[in-house]
Design brief:
With about 200 residues, the chain is an alpha+beta fold. It has helices spanning about 5-30, 105-110, 115-125, and strands spanning about 30-40, 50-60, 65-75, 80-90, 95-105, 145-150, 165-175, 180-190. The protein has 2 domains: about 1-30; about 35-190, Distorted Sandwich (Ganglioside M2 Activator Protein, Chain: A), CATH 2.70.220. About 20% of the residues lie in helices and about 35% in strands. The radius of gyration is 21 Å and the shape is globular. Pfam families: DUF1091.
Length: about 200
Amino acid sequence: MEMNPKTAEFWMLIFLYLLSNWKLETEAKNNFELLTDNFTCSSEDISSSILKEFNCGVSKSVKRRTWHMEFVLKQPVAEHDFFMKIVLPRRRPLPDFVLLNVTTEGCQLLANRNQVPLIRLGRSIMERFSNFPKQCPFKPNLMYYIRGFRLDLNVLPAVDMETPVHIELSYQSKQQGLRWITGYLMAHVQLISEKKRPN
């Protein structure tokens, strides 16, 4: 089938437009990086009915800081919720910008089913850094971990500003109604220095 010259010209313009936008977005992403400042965690399970032990923190490396979270459960946890909130703090009197505030069914999250795109992407990335199961339940007396996690902004939509980022994530038991572990990440997006920027 032969294409009309005007139609061919139209599709060529569309292709060039998309290509130029893709290039600009790629360049924007490559110019910024997310750096971890601190990572801590807490638990509402004061009586230790669910959680046996937990540990959170950041690596000692200042140049390439990563964060980790480890926990051991006393009992199997099947039905649970996962909560995540991502906030970009702003100077007063401006209110903080809430990028994401979502609670989702934990078992579906482990299986990476029926999630909002950003959460589904995050679960896929997390597989490289954790031993979380791909289906419920979380088993007791097993050290579950997320280790050496450092987010590459190239996997996300283009970022073109320097900003602090606060992330809160929680796992909550549906049966007991308490958050057995909550992590608090403080980070910031900054422009990559000329020395670190790829040629």
